[in-house]
Specification:
single chain; mainly alpha
Length: 37
């Protein structure tokens, strides 16, 4: 039971980390585009 709970928490953390990187990537692209213009 503890192991499965830990696995779910880890998976959730990985998904959240991926979304954070996506958001950061989008914002970085916006800043880069505004600078290159």
């Amino acid at each position: 039971m503890k192991y499965s709970q830990k696995a779910v928490a880890k998976r959730f953390f990985v998904i959240m980390k991926g979304r954070m990187l996506e958001i950061k990537g989008e914002k970085f692209d916006e800043i880069h585009n505004s600078w290159s213009r």
